[in-house]
Design goal:
heterodimer; A: 111 residues; alpha/beta; five-stranded mixed beta sheet; 5 strands; 17% strand; B: 241 residues; six-stranded mixed beta sheet; two-stranded antiparallel sheet; 10 strands
């Protein structure tokens, strides 16, 4: 499934990184300690994190993650959005918990 | 004496810092700003400290060697020492606690090592901008063993701060000072965090660019204008002053 399709089906808000919406999602990784994400997330994964620091885009680029999804209605910082545009990493969000996001993505067939 | 200080400054060794953050530029800008004491605190490395200390000696400004350590919990801690030998001994501990990830300059930026003439002596290829395997408690113990002091960095921020990542300040570590960002008013901060009123606070720039370095706005009352007086001042508990 492409990021664009996931965003539409879950009615996610797109904060930035529209150019990356055609990226393919191969799985999901959930985590908030960037060092853990860096060492454990797999290429193509959608990443659910409450982190909004600019470094999340660097980590997503480094591990070639498909997109970043921010739960709980948290708004990313301005410089994070600028970096997401520059790196074409979509940053999406929704006012639900990480668990709820994960469940809905699972229901869409990404397991 | 009352010393104007900025105890949190990055050099070009930090991948996220400007290439203009050379030893001479930092010292000259700090002199222009009227500072008496600065500390050099790159991410997980102290490799540029000695070059800045040498520059500082020529210009009559005290340079405290240090590091901004990232702990296992992704908490940023300023680690400051009264001499370069202790600082580099801590550097050895940190180097062996840092995962072996190659830096991607295109994503994180360049990690430049320089001498006191701003000449590039090497490029650090190991990514500095990540967590070490040291916990907050371990780091505090190791820094104390070397006669240094630990100050939790920018505790007002949402990322990499001890408050955001651990939810509270661990009381048993024995912190004396907590760092606030330059823009934060201590009175306002304490109104929102009344439980922290027994700590002392210090505001620093966390400068990644030359223009960010503080003006004469943060002061410490010290015995003499040297690094040792700064460290002993920072170690002192409330009420001992």
């Amino acid at each position: 499934m492409k990021v664009r399709e996931l965003a539409q089906k879950l009615n996610l808000r797109l904060f930035a990184g529209e150019d990356g919406l055609e990226r393919e999602i191969s799985g999901v990784y959930i985590g908030d300690l960037l060092s853990r994400v860096m060492s454990n997330s797999e290429s193509g994964s959608a990443w659910i994190t409450i982190h909004t620091h600019v470094n999340i885009v660097a980590v997503a680029s480094l591990n070639e993650l498909s997109c970043i999804i921010i739960p709980e209605g948290i708004e990313p910082e301005e410089n994070t959005l600028d970096k997401a545009v520059a790196e074409s990493i979509p940053i999406l969000g929704k006012k639900v918990s990480s668990y709820s996001l994960a469940c809905r993505i699972y229901e869409l067939g990404i397991k | 004496m009352k010393a104007a200080v900025d105890l949190h400054i990055h050099t070009a060794l930090s991948p996220c810092a400007s290439e203009d953050m050379t030893p001479n530029n930092i010292v000259n800008m700090s002199v222009l700003k009227g500072l008496d004491v600065i500390a050099i605190t790159d991410h997980n490395s102290s490799a540029n400290c000695e070059a800045v200390i040498k520059c500082g000696m020529k210009k009559g400004i005290i340079v405290v060697p240090g590091m901004e350590l990232e702990t296992q919990e992704e908490v940023h801690l300023l680690c400051l020492f009264d001499n370069i030998i202790s600082c580099m001994a801590f550097q050895d501990i940190v180097s062996s606690s840092l995962p072996d990830i190659e830096n991607r300059e295109d994503i994180f930026g360049r990690q430049t090592l320089m001498d006191e003439n701003d000449r590039i002596t090497d490029i650090n290829r190991q990514l500095l901008l990540t967590a070490t395997t040291l916990s907050v408690e371990e780091a505090a113990q190791k820094v104390a063993n070397l006669g240094g002091i630990i100050i939790p960095a920018h505790i007002d921020r949402q990322s990499h701060s001890i408050l955001s990542n651990l939810g509270m300040i661990p009381e048993d570590v024995g912190f004396t000072y907590l760092e606030l960002s330059r823009s934060v008013c201590v009175v306002d901060f304490l109104r929102d965090n009344p439980g922290l009123s027994h700590f002392q606070f210090i505001r620093s720039s966390d400068a990644h660019e030359l223009g960010d370095i503080l003006e004469r706005e943060t002061f410490l009352e010290i015995e003499a204008k040297n690094a040792r007086s700064i460290i002993s001042k920072l170690c002192a508990q409330h009420g001992w002053r």
